[in-house]
Amino acid sequence: MTDQNPSMHLTVEETAQNLAAFAVDRTDLKTILHSLPPESGPNRVTLEYELGMLKILTVGWGISFFMPVSDKNKPLLSEAFWQMIQESLEIFPHLRKPRPVSPLIISRSSRNG
Length: 113
Prior knowledge:
Layout: H1 12-24, H2 27-34, H3 44-66, H4 74-91, H5 108-111
């Protein structure tokens, strides 16, 4: 049996912070995108956004799937994780989906003078 160092245990809040930080970190995604050939077809902005969302969903799903139902911290961790993700999206709007640029619409009245 191994001795466990109590200082190595994380609180639910610390665990949620670590998972949320990992989920929104796009460093690994940028590395993957830079490895694609420049002439590859997919829109890189869209691809980065979608991979980022998949990463967040995967971490959230991992909490639900891998933590035992009997773990009393499971709902607390899940709630804290999703709250931190929500706050990240409010603090860092660049994590949200980029809005498409709408074409310039000129009304008839502005064209006639």
